[in-house]
Specification:
- The chain contains five helices and three strands, in the order ααβααββα.
- The protein is an alpha+beta fold and 106 residues long.
- Strands 1-3-2 form a three-stranded antiparallel sheet.
- The longest helix is centred in the middle third of the chain and has 14 residues.
């Protein structure tokens, strides 16, 4: 992954509704969800949802599949894993960085 692709992916996720959409789609696996179910689950108006789905598709983090008259969106797990690998490829300079138990996060 190159820097510009990472920035594009992170920019797409740097908005509350798009991050919620992406996380919801990750929960539903490769089957994904149809547009109506996404909007209902997150209480997002259709026009707004369409805009956010377009942004996520253009970033390459989700994919759209037409099934009959419905469009289903699903997380692109390969793209997601590539982004995570890019973010962690030089993690801790080769030294183990397993998180140490801490108190609860707020």
């Amino acid at each position: 992954m190159d820097l510009s692709t990472a920035v594009m992916n992170l920019s797409a996720l740097a908005q509350e509704s798009r991050l919620q959409i992406f996380r919801l789609l990750v929960e539903h696996g490769s089957e994904g969800l149809c547009v109506g179910d996404i909007g209902e689950a997150l209480d997002i108006a259709p026009a707004t949802l369409s805009f956010h789905l377009k942004e996520l598709c253009q970033s390459g983090l989700i994919i759209a599949n037409r099934k009959s008259r419905h469009i289903y969106y699903a997380a692109d797990f390969e793209a997601m894993n590539t982004l995570v690998e890019y973010l962690t490829e030089n993690c801790c300079g080769g030294v183990s960085c397993s998180p140490k138990p801490k108190g609860k996060r707020k």
